[in-house]
Each structure stands twice: as structure tokens, then as C-alpha cells.
Design goal:
The complex is a heterodimer of chains A (117) and B (112). Chain A has 117 residues and is mostly beta strands. Chain A is built from no helices and 12 strands. In chain A, the strands form 3 sheets. In chain A, strands 2, 5, 6, 10, 11 and 12 form a 6-stranded mixed β-sheet that branches. Chain B is globular. The chains are: A mainly beta (117), B mainly beta (112). Chains A and B meet through strand 6, strand 10 and strand 11 of A and strand 5, strand 9 and strand 10 of B.
């Protein structure tokens, strides 16, 4: 089955330290991968995506993600965490939706990032 | 400014009532989506539409209905058949199903 998993419900990191939010995927064919961030009671904001090309993708607010085909992972990273980075982070993958034979975004369950001052 | 507008932000429904959540976009996107978000469960796809006058069921369509009469609008009706409608509902749009989706600010529906 095609899916995306975020193995950590919560990640805590000290301000100024590097952060990593993990994501693994299982799809047939070439994956299209995305990261989104959600602040409380708000919609999701797009951070970055991997379609093809360079395995290191740079996105908004200093975030980047590394695509690793052999490990089927797409971990989100930032060199120096800010308190304002505290939010809920979602990984998503484009999958073939069996109902209509079209591609849709499937989301992981989210990882809550807390940056401690 | 271009974007997606969901209204209302908060909605209260009595049991047995139908309610309609509004979603409007001025991004000229063809594809539009409705997701439901529950704590600890991520986002689950309710319905999606790739073009005007066409829409498809997502993973949890039971108890919901949609229409897509205009490119800009994709309203979601939560019917009385939806047994547990209390949730945060998110509308999104994208240029195509292959591109990133842009989200509205959400509607929080509570059954009272």
C-alpha cells in the first residue's frame, strides 16, 4: 500500500540547535514528496517539495529536506531552530488514488515540534 | 491578494442538521480538495475536484456532499448522515493534482 509515515509524534529541541523531523514513504513509481507546517487553528503552509533532481531541497524559513531513495526517507531539517518554529509538521506524498485512478496528496499524521528557549 | 477563503471560521450544528462550509479561491486553480483533520490522525481526504462539474470521493466521503458549479467555489455539506462531524475542516487547491496544494484557514465544526 502507498503511504507516508512520521515515526515521531513529538520532537523537542533547544533553541539554536539543529532540528530533524523524520518522514518515510512507500509508493510505487517515483515519489513526489512535500512538507507542510501548521500553526494552531490555522491551515497548512507549504514549505518545500521534491519532484526530481538534487536530493537536497531548500524551502521556506530556512528549512531543507533530504531525499534518500535507498532509505525511502524525506527528513525535514534546519541548522538552527527558533522558538517560532514550534508547530505541527506534516509530510505528504503524491499517491495514486484507487477510487478514480488519479493522483492525490496523502499526509502523515504529523509531528509536533517544540523548540525550547 | 490571491488565496483561499473558508467561511465561517467556527460553526456549530445541532444533531440532525445539515450544514454547508464555504470554500472560495481566486488562484485560478483547477483542482480543489476537502480534508478533515482530527487530533493525532493527520489529514484525511473527503472529496476532490479536478475540474468544474466533476468531483470524486476521497477516503472518508460518507455523510458528506459537494458541488463544483464554478471554478472558484467548492462548498462542502456535512449531512445528518455523518455520525461524528465534530472536526477541523480544511479546503485546498492546486494548479494540478501533481503540484503542491494551498490551504485555507479552516472551519472548526462542533456538534452541540
Amino acid at each position: 500500500a502507498q503511504s507516508v509515515a512520521q515515526p515521531e509524534d513529538q520532537v523537542n529541541v533547544a533553541e539554536g540547535n539543529p532540528l530533524t523531523v523524520k518522514c518515510t514513504y512507500s509508493v510505487s513509481g517515483n515519489p513526489y514528496l512535500f512538507w507542510y507546517v501548521q500553526y494552531p487553528n490555522r491551515g497548512l503552509q507549504f514549505l518545500l517539495k521534491y519532484i526530481t533532481g538534487d536530493n537536497l531541497v531548500k524551502g521556506s524559513y530556512g528549512f531543507e529536506a533530504e531525499f534518500n531513495k535507498s532509505q525511502t526517507s524525506f527528513h525535514l531539517k534546519k541548522p538552527s531552530a527558533l522558538v517560532s518554529d514550534s508547530a505541527l509538521y506534516f509530510c505528504a506524498v503524491r499517491v495514486l488514488h484507487s477510487g478514480a485512478g488519479s493522483y492525490q496528496l496523502t499526509f502523515g499524521k504529523g509531528t509536533k515540534l517544540s523548540v525550547i528557549p | 491578494d490571491g488565496g483561499i477563503t473558508q467561511s465561517p471560521k467556527y460553526l456549530f450544528r445541532k444533531e440532525g442538521q445539515n450544514v454547508t462550509l464555504s470554500c472560495e479561491q481566486n488562484l485560478n486553480h483547477d483542482a480543489m480538495y476537502w480534508y478533515r483533520q482530527d487530533p493525532g490522525q493527520g489529514l484525511r481526504l473527503i472529496y476532490y475536484s479536478q475540474i468544474v462539474n466533476d468531483f470524486q470521493k476521497g477516503d472518508i466521503a460518507e455523510g458528506y456532499s459537494v458541488s463544483r458549479e464554478k471554478k472558484e467555489s467548492f462548498p462542502l455539506t456535512v449531512t445528518s448522515a455523518q455520525k461524528n462531524p465534530t472536526a477541523f475542516y480544511l479546503c485546498a487547491s492546486s494548479i494540478s493534482p501533481y503540484d503542491e496544494a494551498f490551504f485555507g484557514q479552516g472551519t472548526r465544526l462542533t456538534v452541540v
